[in-house]
Structure prediction request, 607 residues.
Amino acid sequence: MDVLPLLPQTLADGFLLGAVYAIVAVGLTLTFGVLRIVNFAHGDFLALGLYLTYLGATWLHLDPYLSLVLVLPLVTLAAAFTYRLLIAPVILAPEHNQIVVTLGLSLILQNAMLAIFTADLHAMPSVLSGHIVRIGNVFIQAAALIASAASIAVCLGLYWLLRSTELGRQIRAAAQDRDAALMSGVNVDRMYLIAFCIGVGSLGLVAPLIAPFNYVSPSVGSSFTLTAFIVVVLGSMGNFVGALIGGFIIGLVEAVGGLLTGGSINFIITYAIFILFLLFRPEGLLGGRRL
Amino acid sequence: MKPMLLLGAVIALLAALAPFLSIYGQHIFVLVALYGAVALAWNILGGMAGQMSLGHALFVGAGAYLSTALYLNLGVSPWIGLVLAACLGGALGALMGYTVFRRRLSGVYFALVTLALAEMTLHIVSNVSALGAANGLAIPARPSLANLQFTSKLGYCYAALAVLTVAAIVIIVIHRSRLGYVFLAIRENERSAAALGIDVVQGKVIAAAISGALAAMVGPIYANYVLFIDPESMFGITLSIDALLFSFVGGLGSLFGPLLGTVVLVPLTELLRGMLAGRLAGVHLIVYGVILVLVMRLAPRGLWGLLSDAVARRRA
Prediction:
């Protein structure tokens, strides 16, 4: 098979996928950069958002885009409760305990969704689902284009928030040095709460946007968690811009790998990159921890 | 020699008890012994040496696939496969430990490497048609001692108990030797350990090798018990999390806490399965999650910690 004519299409697919990976990874890197907690349940909140979108579609007959007004606040609320009940109590505990708590949370969320919704795949069609945009020989789903554009916009918005606002300055202060921030009058606990709500809550924004061209099943979350980890390590843990770049790299690698090899050999390539990075450059592409 | 005598007595008691159990009881006996052995193996690296692995399924799966592939293709007895599995597990553990610990990866980075290695192996095995690819391998039922297959569950009880005993003996021997102190020193403070002249990297590599070898020994017995292995159940993250879960709930770092965790949690799982009779898949994992979070909040030293505190109070 001659792959060259397919390359523009593949690159476009990879770029669109990468933007979604980027926003999911930005949320993970934000919670890690600020709270220093590795959240193994990150992707499960995305699955939660997708199921809420699905419920909105079946119960209230809402288009996924309309259900955004419900899903975003609900997922953010879930994040706030999670922070208060589970994360805040272990914020100073040894790293092992923190990992185990978020793993436990992941088990609870994933299997609660399995018990309630079963393992069946559900689609959440939107009025936009069938629309295709054609640019030259490249065909793009309108919904995927919207999701990618929104993801990039949210990433840039969050970057602006962290860099240029007083709230962002306080969050960065809490991230850099907890004790010094406390002594300067920063309400560190509050900053942690806000950072966690933004990092996890952003998934409540992503979920309705990717719903029109995705299926939801209880295991969606763990695959996104793994991908987000790969992206975050690639772009340096806690590094905002790094997560953005890493997202696009992994998106493109998956798309091009899929074109060349097909099937699940693709995953092997991604994991191999991940392991090599962990071994030889655990500090990631950009190095250091910068929010 | 006192712990060895105690161990011998407990094992003899369990062995004497097994024939009087119902078939269902014997099934749980086998599961507890096999999962208990994996948890004990995990605890050597995760608890005693303090390096938390999220990929121990890699060793169990490698052991199961090695012995099964040798038996199906070359007719090699699973008993030889069992020995080879332990060698492979030890080699994999040493190799993994050497590459990872030499790069000074620890904490969450180590957890992620182990997770990624297990997941990558899952996808590799899923693509190798000689290993049955994603469909897995079925082992024809030909019960005989040479095939590591038994006509009754009692045989499996003893096979599983034997592996558990090996793991327990290894742990006691480590604990009483210099190696036990090396692991402890590494876990408590790596820098101080290095300052005392301990080769930290070497210590961790040894822990990973022993841990991998013991975990891999469970694979062939499990494979011949269920007579079917597939990539998802042998290399998937569920098994890796089980090993970690039993250890944390039972008591991380204590010698036999992980076994206590298994003894409590595995029968609970089976009980829940029976009660729900196939409805509400995954409920036992919700329960696991809740127990895990509660233990971290209320008793970070696990059930073993609670128990030893209670004993200490009674004596005081």
